[in-house]
Amino acid sequence: MNPMSGPAGRRQILLGLAAVGGGALLGTPGAAHAAAKWKLDTLHAFSPEEGSRAVGSPVFGPDGLLYGVHAMGGEHGLGTLFRWSPSDGSFTVLHHLNYATGEPAEPESGLIVGQDGLLWGTSLFGGQQFGGTIYTLATDGTLTLRAEFTSDTGMRMPQGALVEGKPGRFYGTTGESVYRFDARPGGKLKQLHRFAPATDGSSSQAALVFGSDGKLYGCNMTNGPKGKGTVFRLNPDGSQFEVVKAFDGKWDGGDLRSPLLLADDGHFYGCTTSGGVFGRGVAFRLGVAGDYEVIHHFAGGDNDGAYPDGALIQGPDGDLYGTTLEGGAAPQSYGIVFRMSQRGRLRVIHRFTAEGQEGTTPTGALCFGPGGQLYGTNQSGSQSSGALYRLRPPAA
């Protein structure tokens, strides 16, 4: 256990904070950890007709092109699927989603690349009963409906991205349950576990991840024994569901909106959107045995972020990379991209300013591309509905 996590330790940290006049706790940002400058390139500024409110992480397909998802906007206001080419910078809207034709609509998560080479996704609405869908996108642009959430399944409105186990076997969550989808011909959805909100938590928005023990781990945003969400796990067949960590929204954080990351040290890392000393979220480390440690309290301001909303990813250097909705250059506080050690030492590598077509309010996870470059999306801008951007490291 972290020796500073008890009441006496918390008081000691708070007294130290007062003495130095501010700064985030445990993993302290600032000039001592200043990083060389990363360069941001705006690859494409989205117009409302192309889509708005980008969700999830952009992902490189097997063809080397970058794919992404909008939850809103487009011709029907129900979201779009898009592609960007690194070779010539061309941007293409592949689909304007429309549930009037039974298509997916209003997706709330990004795509993943399946072992079959297809891009797999979920949508909050769409299908014949408007209860949500699982769909695939081929690199030639073909959109195929794979499953519908209907009254027959007892489930509806999937929000998190999928994760694939054995080839063709996918797992995901709705706000009320954990499910499995087998992609064989005639495959069907199966509910593995239905959340009991008071004990299990509920309102899952995050993708599941596989742990080193072969179990599935996930996050519930609300409810649970302490009221502000849980981390849970279960076997891939749905058995042995248990809560690993319950959150109360205070020191330990609360409101888990993004998936966990299984890092190379065998621990899970994640962020909460609220709670912590400053009420602006925390970054944490969690062991398979349930040992939990806050490694950073987000404070906002010039040298820190506030309200992390997307998943962490691990870089080739072992550090963790992520974004926050606010923080950075005062007084606008338009969000940051950060780099963090596994001990919680945070460095801001970009502060969004809304200058030109840069965009603001980064959401979803980042992804790494060739040469250690980072790719991401944000949701708003002074001249656009957000942007697709790239961050080049100092050596690039």
Description of the structure:
The chain has 396 residues and is mostly beta strands. It has a single domain, classed as 7 Propeller (Methylamine Dehydrogenase, Chain H), CATH 2.130.10. It has two helices and 32 strands. The strands form eight sheets. A five-stranded antiparallel beta sheet has the order 1-24-23-22-21, covered by helices on one side. Strands 25, 26, 27, 28 and 29 form a five-stranded antiparallel beta sheet that branches. The two termini are 40 Å apart.
DSSP strand (E) fraction? 35-45%
* Average residue-wise pLDDT: 90
Helix fraction bin? under 10%
**In CATH, what is the homologous superfamily?**
YVTN repeat-like/Quinoprotein amine dehydrogenase
Number of separate helices: 2
Described by strand count, sense and barrel closure, the largest sheet is: 5 strands, antiparallel
- How do the strands of the widest beta sheet line up side by side? 1-24-23-22-21
Work out the number of β strands: 32
Shape: globular
Question: In whole angstroms, how far apart are the ends?
Answer: 40 Å
> Structural class of the secondary elements?
mainly beta
How many domains would you count in the coordinates? 1
- Reported CATH architecture: 7 Propeller
Could you name the CATH class?
A: Mainly Beta
CATH topology category name: Methylamine Dehydrogenase, Chain H
Radius of gyration, taken over Cα atoms and rounded to an integer in Å: 20 Å
Question: Uncertain regions: pLDDT < 50 for 5+ in a row?
Answer: 1-23, 29-34
Quick summary:
This protein is mainly beta and 396 residues long.
